[in-house]
Amino acid sequence: xxxxxxxxxxxxxxxxxxxxxxxxxxxxxxxxxxxxxxxxxxxxxxxxxxxxxxxxxxxxxxxxxxxxxxxxxxxxxxxxxxxxxxxxxxxxxxxxxxxxxxxxxxxxxxxxxxxxxxxxxxxxxxxxxxxxxxxxxxxxxxxxxxxxxxxxxxxxxxxxxxxxxxxxxxxxxxxxxxxxxxxxxxxxxxxxxxxxxxxxxxxxxxxxxxxxxxxxxxxxxxxxxxxxxxxxxxxxxxxxxxxxxxxxxxxxxxxxxxxxxxxxxxxxxxxxxxxxxxxxxxxxxxxxxxxxxxxxxxxxxxxxxxxxxxxxxxxxxxxxxxxxxxx
Length: 327
Known about the structure:
By secondary structure, the protein is of the alpha/beta class.
């Protein structure tokens, strides 16, 4: 264990920079602006054109920063000298980074007096990488959390200053867990910056055992393989809600699955299992679909391409599923 900030004298208030882009980072920005510390500047990725009109859309962090009256910087890359000089000119005590989306080279990491600190949505070293929330659900983890680490050039390898764990509930989705961890990260970064300012923050190197990598989620992963057991299919439905959303095919059309649960269907035990993807029953309580190993998934909310998500009851009032099969 080694004390952070070397021999720098403690300060009650830190001059902070904040770097983040998506909604996950907003709670941390709010927490820091409500703390004893001063957020002197916000960095976020450049605005992107989206939609039919290709209008420029602000990142959630930029929108929030402007609402708070904070200066916003949007460098294309920190590999250019101008961007690094802009960061150095701010004379920051520390830079807090949350899902920023740009790589900070060594020169940028050294610019703040005390260094750069990242909020990561896992209990490091488990699930380093881009998609820790979805990977934790897909793997069936019972616990996850957030970690505050000092940033290094290598991905998510730096020493950890603080970590806090929460249980993954059986009904948690990628969306609900995202929101819980975002709030938790905001609370933890605030207290960590307090400790850093007071000179009582302590860093611990990440253990070499237990390292896993959370690869970025691909669109192809959203397709359901009904040969998998019901629990694994259910994890996919939960992990990919609200994006990219688990999906299957019915009569050649896309069918997105928003909510489901594993089901035990009376009468199936001991009988020959139905082919994976076969609709076992279509009732208002849910559409039951055969999975691998004799399991059954009960779909509670789903969506046809170009339509709004509806309950199973609404879907079966509009569509007959007798003898249907999903693929």
